[in-house]
Amino acid sequence: MAVTDEAIEKIKAMIVSGALRPGDRLPKESELAAELGLSRNSLREAVRALSLIRILDVRQGDGTYVTSLDPQLLLEALSFVVDFHRDDTVLEFLAVRRILEPAATALACARISDAELDRLQAQLDALGQETSVEELVACDLEFHRGIVQSSGNSVLCSLLDGLSGPTTRARVWRGLTQEDAVSRTLHEHRAILAALRDRDAEAARSWATVHIASVEQWLRSTL
Predict the structure, then answer these.
(1) What pairs with residue 66 in β-bridges?
(2) pTM of the model
(3) Who's near 11: CB < 8 A, 6+ residues apart?
(4) What is residue 170's predicted lDDT score, i.e. its pLDDT?
(5) What does the pLDDT read at residue 80?
(6) 90 Cβ partners below 8 Å, 6+ apart?
(7) Residues contacting residue 190 through CB under 8 Å, at least 6 positions apart
(8) Which string of DSSP letters, residue by residue, matches the chain?
(9) How many Å apart are CA 152 and CA 117, to the nearest integer?
(10) Mind listing the pLDDT tens digit for each residue in 111-143?
């Protein structure tokens, strides 16, 4: 094992075991290196790597701390990684969305507030047939984000937020090339919203599946 990898594993073990907890300050570099049997250079590299994925927070002049380890914070790294996807993997990202998002939509049925439902309704009502593709895609992203946030599951929300990037280009492409993309998207959004208002989790799940599957089916037919 490379010395930097070994250092990362040792710091990880301290956090997983509870020896270091969220918000804790790490011991001084010299002390921690001696405690873990590491060189100060390998420890420094490990700290740098762990700070990039939001496990550690290096505060200049103050020290290094364990972050909150909040799922939303940790999964920010996912958004960065998926930005490197290739076009030929977009269908795979859509397939993952089709698995996760209907489940989140069903969960939101019992939790989403009437005020949030009204906000989403007003957002849809503001769109018309002359809506630009950019406006439609922005609305689509915001619509689904609002619902998923209401699921009450921060991990699911962060995962889906990270997965939305790779499918954005496909949504824009569909909006530019499919004749009824705007009306179809709005129809499916309204059906999802109606199911949420009825607190019908299975209907909400089904309509969310149809909505994502329609994009997936269209993309599959054009590739």
Answers:
(1) 56
(2) 0.70
(3) 20, 36, 46, 47, 50, 56
(4) 62
(5) 64
(6) 166, 167, 169, 170, 219
(7) 124
(8) --HHHHHHHHHHHHHHHTSS-TTPBPPPHHHHHHHHT--HHHHHHHHHHHHHTTSEEEETTTEEEE----HHHHTHHHHHHHTT--GGGHHHHHHHHHHHHHHHHHHHTTT--HHHHHHHHHHHHT--TT--HHHHHHHHHHHHHHHHHTTS-HHHHHHHHHHHHHHHHHHHHHHHH-TTHHHHHHHHHHHHHHHHHTT-HHHHHHHHHHHHHHHHHHHHHH-
(9) 15
(10) 999 999 999 999 988 886 677 777 888 888 899
Best CA proximity match to 97, nearest among 49, 50, 162: 162
Q: Say which amino acid occupies 44.
A: R
Question: What amino acid occupies position 199?
Answer: R
> Phi and psi of 208, rounded to 5°?
-65, -35
Residue 160 sits at the vertex; the CA angle it makes with 113 and 146, to the nearest 5 degrees, is: 25
The pair of structure tokens assigned to 98 is 């089709």
Residue identified by tokens 């200049």 is 60
Tokens, residue 101? 């998002």
Q: Which two tokens stand for residue 174?
A: 């569909």
